[in-house]
Amino acid sequence: MATSARKKAHRNPIYGAKGVVASRLRQRKHQLARRFDIPHVLLGGSLNQVARQCGKPTCRCASGEGHPMWTLTYSVSGRRHVEFIPDMLVPMIAPWVEEGRAYRDALSEIQAINAQLVTLWRKQKRARPRRRRSQK
Ligand SMILES: [Zn+2]
Protein backbone atom coordinates (compact mmCIF):
# COMPACT_ATOMS: atom_id res chain seq x y z
CA MET A 1 0.00 0.00 0.00
CA ALA A 2 1.33 3.46 -0.88
CA THR A 3 2.03 5.86 1.98
CA SER A 4 -0.76 8.22 0.97
CA ALA A 5 -3.24 5.34 0.73
CA ARG A 6 -2.20 4.07 4.18
CA LYS A 7 -2.64 7.54 5.66
CA LYS A 8 -6.08 7.71 4.07
CA ALA A 9 -7.03 4.29 5.44
CA HIS A 10 -6.25 5.46 8.97
CA ARG A 11 -8.56 8.39 8.51
CA ASN A 12 -11.30 5.99 7.50
CA PRO A 13 -13.11 4.86 10.67
CA ILE A 14 -13.84 1.42 9.23
CA TYR A 15 -10.18 0.60 8.50
CA GLY A 16 -8.54 2.96 10.97
CA ALA A 17 -9.93 1.58 14.24
CA LYS A 18 -7.23 -0.28 16.18
CA GLY A 19 -7.18 -3.01 18.81
CA VAL A 20 -8.45 -6.53 19.42
CA VAL A 21 -12.16 -5.66 19.30
CA ALA A 22 -11.79 -3.77 16.02
CA SER A 23 -9.88 -6.59 14.34
CA ARG A 24 -12.34 -9.21 15.63
CA LEU A 25 -15.22 -7.15 14.20
CA ARG A 26 -13.47 -6.74 10.85
CA GLN A 27 -12.68 -10.46 10.71
CA ARG A 28 -16.32 -11.36 11.34
CA LYS A 29 -17.42 -8.83 8.74
CA HIS A 30 -15.11 -10.27 6.08
CA GLN A 31 -16.31 -13.79 6.91
CA LEU A 32 -19.98 -12.79 6.41
CA ALA A 33 -19.25 -10.61 3.38
CA ARG A 34 -17.42 -13.47 1.70
CA ARG A 35 -20.07 -16.07 2.51
CA PHE A 36 -22.99 -14.05 1.15
CA ASP A 37 -21.09 -11.90 -1.34
CA ILE A 38 -22.11 -8.72 0.47
CA PRO A 39 -20.46 -5.34 -0.22
CA HIS A 40 -18.15 -4.37 2.66
CA VAL A 41 -19.15 -0.76 3.11
CA LEU A 42 -22.73 -0.79 4.30
CA LEU A 43 -23.90 0.96 7.40
CA GLY A 44 -27.10 0.25 9.31
CA GLY A 45 -28.28 3.35 11.07
CA SER A 46 -29.41 6.88 10.45
CA LEU A 47 -27.53 10.16 10.28
CA ASN A 48 -29.36 13.03 11.86
CA GLN A 49 -28.58 16.65 12.48
CA VAL A 50 -29.31 17.86 15.99
CA ALA A 51 -28.78 21.13 17.85
CA ARG A 52 -26.70 20.82 20.99
CA GLN A 53 -25.61 23.23 23.67
CA CYS A 54 -21.87 23.01 24.30
CA GLY A 55 -22.14 23.80 27.99
CA LYS A 56 -20.03 26.97 28.04
CA PRO A 57 -22.12 29.52 29.92
CA THR A 58 -20.72 32.43 27.86
CA CYS A 59 -21.39 30.79 24.49
CA ARG A 60 -24.18 32.20 22.34
CA CYS A 61 -25.73 28.72 22.25
CA ALA A 62 -26.56 28.94 25.97
CA SER A 63 -29.54 31.14 25.15
CA GLY A 64 -30.00 30.10 21.53
CA GLU A 65 -30.75 26.91 19.67
CA GLY A 66 -27.36 25.27 20.12
CA HIS A 67 -24.69 24.17 17.67
CA PRO A 68 -25.75 21.96 14.77
CA MET A 69 -24.14 18.51 15.11
CA TRP A 70 -24.44 15.19 13.34
CA THR A 71 -25.34 11.97 15.09
CA LEU A 72 -25.36 8.38 13.95
CA THR A 73 -28.12 6.30 15.55
CA TYR A 74 -27.80 2.54 15.25
CA SER A 75 -28.69 -0.66 17.09
CA VAL A 76 -26.56 -3.63 18.07
CA SER A 77 -28.34 -6.68 19.51
CA GLY A 78 -31.40 -4.58 20.23
CA ARG A 79 -29.46 -1.87 22.05
CA ARG A 80 -29.69 1.62 20.63
CA HIS A 81 -26.55 3.73 20.32
CA VAL A 82 -26.15 7.39 19.44
CA GLU A 83 -22.71 8.57 18.34
CA PHE A 84 -21.69 12.12 17.55
CA ILE A 85 -20.11 12.34 14.10
CA PRO A 86 -17.61 15.10 13.25
CA ASP A 87 -18.69 17.18 10.24
CA MET A 88 -15.64 16.04 8.24
CA LEU A 89 -16.77 12.38 8.45
CA VAL A 90 -20.32 13.00 7.27
CA PRO A 91 -19.48 13.01 3.52
CA MET A 92 -17.77 9.62 4.04
CA ILE A 93 -20.45 8.01 6.18
CA ALA A 94 -23.58 9.30 4.41
CA PRO A 95 -23.03 7.14 1.27
CA TRP A 96 -22.51 4.03 3.47
CA VAL A 97 -25.81 4.70 5.23
CA GLU A 98 -27.50 5.19 1.84
CA GLU A 99 -25.95 1.98 0.47
CA GLY A 100 -26.99 0.11 3.61
CA ARG A 101 -30.59 1.19 3.16
CA ALA A 102 -30.57 0.34 -0.56
CA TYR A 103 -29.03 -3.06 0.21
CA ARG A 104 -31.61 -3.91 2.89
CA ASP A 105 -34.41 -2.87 0.50
CA ALA A 106 -32.91 -5.01 -2.28
CA LEU A 107 -32.54 -7.99 0.07
CA SER A 108 -36.21 -7.77 1.15
CA GLU A 109 -37.29 -7.40 -2.46
CA ILE A 110 -35.28 -10.41 -3.64
CA GLN A 111 -36.80 -12.55 -0.88
CA ALA A 112 -40.31 -11.33 -1.71
CA ILE A 113 -39.76 -11.92 -5.44
CA ASN A 114 -38.63 -15.49 -4.84
CA ALA A 115 -41.70 -16.15 -2.70
CA GLN A 116 -43.92 -14.69 -5.44
CA LEU A 117 -42.18 -16.83 -8.06
CA VAL A 118 -42.91 -19.96 -6.02
CA THR A 119 -46.59 -18.94 -5.84
CA LEU A 120 -46.72 -18.19 -9.59
CA TRP A 121 -45.13 -21.51 -10.43
CA ARG A 122 -47.61 -23.33 -8.18
CA LYS A 123 -50.60 -21.55 -9.80
CA GLN A 124 -49.35 -22.31 -13.30
CA LYS A 125 -48.77 -25.94 -12.38
CA ARG A 126 -52.35 -26.24 -11.12
CA ALA A 127 -53.92 -24.35 -14.07
CA ARG A 128 -52.13 -26.08 -16.93
CA PRO A 129 -53.35 -29.57 -17.77
CA ARG A 130 -50.53 -32.08 -17.74
CA ARG A 131 -49.18 -32.91 -21.14
CA ARG A 132 -48.12 -36.36 -22.03
CA ARG A 133 -44.61 -36.79 -23.37
CA SER A 134 -45.83 -38.24 -26.63
CA GLN A 135 -47.61 -34.99 -27.56
CA LYS A 136 -44.42 -33.00 -27.47
ZN1 LIG B 1 -21.94 26.74 22.46
Short account of what is shown:
It is built from four helices and three strands; from the N terminus they run αααβββα.
Key features?
binds zinc ion, three-stranded antiparallel β-sheet, 3 strands, elongated, 136 residues, 50% helix, alpha+beta
Please, could you describe this protein's structure?
With 136 residues, this protein is an alpha+beta fold. The protein has 2 domains: 1-40; 44-125, no CATH class. It has 4 helices and 3 strands, in the order H-H-H-E-E-E-H. It has a 3-stranded antiparallel β-sheet with strand order 1-2-3, covered by helices on one side. Strand 2 (67-76) and strand 3 (79-85) form a beta hairpin. The longest helix is centred in the C-terminal third of the chain and has 38 residues, at 90-127. The N and C termini lie far apart (62 Å). 1% of the residues are buried. Residues 53-54, 56, 59, 61, 67 line the site of zinc ion.
